[in-house]
Specification:
Helix content is 38%, strand content 33%. The protein has 2 helices and 4 strands. The chain has a 4-stranded antiparallel β-sheet. It is globular and about 35 Å long. It comes from Streptomyces massasporeus. This is Antibiotic biosynthesis monooxygenase.
């Protein structure tokens, strides 16, 4: 499996960002081949974190492209700073 974690700081409206992710982005990311799981976390103080898990790197890379386009088109005003992105092979899971 392969995971991608994105950390967004300076989120201006966390509840609205969460609503848009839930209603609009989740249906897009679920369509990516190899999709396993997606989590959107409100870490407080204007920080939100997403975690995507896919069967392989190619699915994770496709989700990264979709996330970039979605943020640009639907969340740019709410997520004013680019995310910090960490990605890699899952080496332990339960």
């Amino acid at each position: 499996m392969y995971a991608v974690i994105r950390r967004y700081e300076g989120v201006t409206e966390p509840a609205e960002a969460g609503r848009r992710v839930h209603e609009e982005f989740l249906p897009l990311v679920r369509q990516v081949q190899g999709f396993v799981a997606y989590y959107w976390v409100d870490a407080g103080d204007g920080v939100m974190v997403s975690t995507s898990v896919f069967q392989d790197r190619s699915g994770a890379e496709e989700s990264t492209h979709r996330a970039k386009d979605f943020v640009r088109d639907r969340l740019a005003a709410l997520l004013p700073q680019p995310p910090q992105v960490t990605a890699g092979e899952v080496v332990a899971a339960s």
